[in-house]
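Exercise 7. Given the encoded structure of a 395-residue chain, write a plausible sequence.
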């Protein structure tokens, strides 16, 4: 929650005249490497692809690698450069129902690739940090380009920090329609059959946060994160069945404003327990409101082994354009049967175990930490999911 000042030991190492070029720049060094692999599966019977009823089975294998470098410039400001590449492979039974006539449509399995390049600069003397990032994302029905700018300023005693962030993402959607609603000559979106329309979706977001160290045990952070979207906000292959038997594709407004407000509280209970809690209130101009509460409690078992139970509860109201299958009226302007934006409550719970031996994991000196986490997710409308994540840090 609160960035800690650089230790004197770290500063002396970074400021050493060794490894500097003739202009006073410290040689670029590798700080750390992080590897994360995860497995996710879900099931349910509320797929929007088939009108709000039908399989939601999905399996996802995700892997990411990020590498962090740093150097000091001649003004002793620390620059960090992080490159990250992530790739997901997923199999979605519900997406395969876009065109159930085929043995296996182009959307049943796919690869999602999303690299990011980020830079930040920290000036300890002025207690200022600035940063920026560029990102790219692609999978079978869209491509996205985005970027962020960030700024933070700490008080003289480093107990208060103001952070600001703005970002924008520019997406291009392939307008892939359910097979029975395609005009004559309209393509399927599969490779070699691309006679389809393409639409834009732009997203703009901001974040304003204030963190405060109350005392040596208690830290708080309040954050507000407004965002605005415009363009194609409907999913073109979501079916909607009307009360008179008519079938159409989902139609939602072309703009959406969101306003989440959150509060984080961290309490340090001695050397072995930390309580990290979070509350968020959310509302948007589509009529949805939501409340989210989460808590995790890292517990130190030994000097290098800890476990982290966690729990999150969410309750949300549905958007005003939602109705279940066969419930929409034909005169309605906007309509969806996507249960992701309906009213429901959900719970996510699990635990993690983290090891950080002084001599390295498995005796490998540079393998700093390893962590295994498990989580179970359930919704009041019947969807369930499980996830397992393994991460490793090398320093």
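Solution.
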């Amino acid at each position: 929650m609160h960035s800690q000042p650089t230790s004197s030991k770290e500063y002396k190492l970074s400021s050493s005249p060794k490894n500097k070029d003739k202009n006073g720049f410290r040689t670029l060094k590798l700080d750390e490497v992080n590897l994360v692999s995860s497995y996710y599966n879900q099931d349910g019977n509320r797929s929007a692809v088939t009108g709000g009823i039908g399989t939601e089975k999905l399996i996802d294998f995700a892997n990411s690698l990020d590498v962090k470098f740093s150097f000091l410039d001649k003004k002793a400001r620390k620059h960090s450069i992080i490159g990250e590449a992530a790739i997901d492979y997923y199999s979605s039974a519900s997406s395969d129902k876009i065109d159930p006539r085929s043995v296996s449509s182009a959307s049943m399995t796919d690869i999602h690739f999303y690299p990011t390049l980020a830079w930040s600069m920290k000036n300890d003397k002025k207690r200022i940090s600035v940063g920026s990032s560029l990102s790219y994302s692609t999978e079978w029905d869209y491509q996205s380009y985005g970027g962020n700018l960030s700024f933070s300023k700490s008080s003289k005693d480093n107990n208060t920090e103001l952070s600001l962030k703005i970002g924008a993402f520019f997406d291009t959607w392939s307008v892939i329609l359910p097979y029975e609603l395609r005009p004559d000559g309209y393509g399927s979106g599969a490779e070699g059959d691309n006679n389809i329309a393409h639409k834009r979706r732009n997203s703009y977001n901001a974040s304003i946060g204030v963190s405060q160290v109350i005392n040596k045990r208690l830290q708080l952070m309040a954050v507000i994160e407004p965002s605005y979207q415009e363009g194609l906000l409907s999913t073109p292959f979501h079916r909607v069945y009307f009360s008179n038997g008519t079938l159409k594709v989902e139609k939602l407004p072309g703009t959406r404003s969101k306003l989440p407000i959150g509060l984080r509280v961290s309490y340090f209970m001695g050397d072995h327990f930390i309580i990290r809690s979070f509350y968020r209130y959310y509302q948007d101009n589509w009529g949805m409101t939501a409340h989210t509460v989460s808590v995790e409690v890292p517990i130190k078992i030994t000097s290098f082994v800890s476990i982290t139970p966690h729990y999150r509860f969410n309750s949300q109201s549905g958007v005003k354009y939602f109705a279940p299958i066969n419930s929409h009226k034909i005169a309605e302007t906007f309509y969806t049967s996507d249960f992701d934006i309906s009213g429901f409550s959900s719970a996510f719970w699990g635990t993690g175990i983290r090891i950080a031996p002084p001599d390295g994991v498995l005796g490998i000196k540079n393998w700093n930490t390893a962590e295994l986490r498990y989580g179970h997710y359930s919704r009041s409308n019947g969807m369930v999911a499980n996830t397992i994540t393994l991460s490793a840090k090398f320093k």
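Remark. The chain has one domain: 30-394. Students should compare their own answers with the one above.
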